[in-house]
Amino acid sequence: MAATLTGASSMVLFFLLGLVAATEAFDVPTLTFGEGFSHLFGNDNLIRSADDRSVRLTLNSYSGSGFISSDLYEHGFFSASIKLPKDYTAGVVVAFYTSNGDVFPDTHDELDFEFLGNVRGKDWRIQTNVYGNGSTTRGREERYLVPFDPTEEPHRYSILWTPDYIIFYIDDVPIREVVRSDAMGGDFPSKPMSVYATIWDGSSWATSYGRVKINYKYAPYVSEFSDLVLRGCRVDPIQQVDSADRCAEAVEELMSVDYALLTPRKRAAMRRFRERYMIYSFCYDQHRYGNVTFPDCDYVSSEHSRFGEWGDNKFPPKEVRRSRRRSRKPSAVDDQPSN
């Protein structure tokens, strides 16, 4: 007799089927840490593997840690396989992102994957964001659950940034597309950016809107990065006069590869992921933005009906780790709400 799938197993199967339907695995060359990155902060909290192809970033009561690409890029494809810390991780933020805030502090651009920790038994939240030209008051956050436990094994997270569109991937499934338009103006990132990976204390906002803080009793918190990919046109942040012309060939090549082309099958996989796992969208956050509409939002009536006035999904998916954990008497902290 065939076995019955549990809720968690069926979600994983759904995601894997979507992954296969979307595309075959990306064929991209990976780098050693030394070929593309340098230590940013955290002293001994950053540990490179013996073969230099993976890095551990640690957060403890003394410091977080991080690394940065050795170059800035005028568009590109940036990717890493990431394994997140286990157990109680409320207040912990792991991030993989592009930014030029150190070069353009008042008009910076940024593309984010942010991983938001949670109390024991509840899932990590994964957040994407887009900033252009210092548009931090118009944050374009989306937040998701995923149908797997990101603390069990590494999963690939990728950002494709071209002059015309941005695509966020989890493994080989596209989860978000941002298309440039005249109406977006400077809100679409356009200046060269570095690539960062960090782990830090985000107690002020990361879990339940800051109501649940980090507890260093569970430290150290360790995240692992591997399969590092930097594919784009390297530029000098100071001498940018001819960067567009010089990078034109590289951008043309970038936009022709498989992960830059959203076929109908990939779009269907993206739609399924968003319908099933997106738990917050800035597009529907009336408390934050009122009746303001964003040109990069695709206001789908069926999608709109799932989100409340705070932008939160009224029918969130079942959490993977909660469905797997053994029955036990909950503690006070486990009963805290999660964002």
TrEMBL record:
Compositional bias ranges of the Basic and acidic residues kind: 304-320
PROSITE patterns: GH16_2
Signal sequence bounds: 1-25
Domain of life according to the entry: Eukaryota
Gene3D superfamilies, per the entry: 2.60.120.200
Subcellular location: Secreted, Cell wall; Secreted, Extracellular space, Apoplast
Every GH16 domain range: 3-225
Region span, Disordered: 304-339
Gene Ontology biological process terms, A to Z: cell wall biogenesis; cell wall organization; xyloglucan metabolic process
Post-translational modification, as annotated: Contains at least one intrachain disulfide bond essential for its enzymatic activity.
The protein's Enzyme Commission number: 2.4.1.207
Membrane spanning residue stretches: none
Active-site residues, record numbering mapped to chain: 110, 114
GO molecular function, one term: xyloglucan:xyloglucosyl transferase activity
Principal subcellular localisation of the protein: secreted
One GO cellular component term: apoplast
Biological role: Catalyzes xyloglucan endohydrolysis (XEH) and/or endotransglycosylation (XET). Cleaves and religates xyloglucan polymers, an essential constituent of the primary cell wall, and thereby participates in cell wall construction of growing tissues.
PANTHER family on file: XYLOGLUCAN ENDOTRANSGLUCOSYLASE/HYDROLASE PROTEIN 8-RELATED
Recorded family membership: Belongs to the glycosyl hydrolase 16 family.
Protein name per UniProt: Xyloglucan endotransglucosylase/hydrolase
Lineage, top ranks: Eukaryota, Viridiplantae, Streptophyta, Embryophyta, Tracheophyta
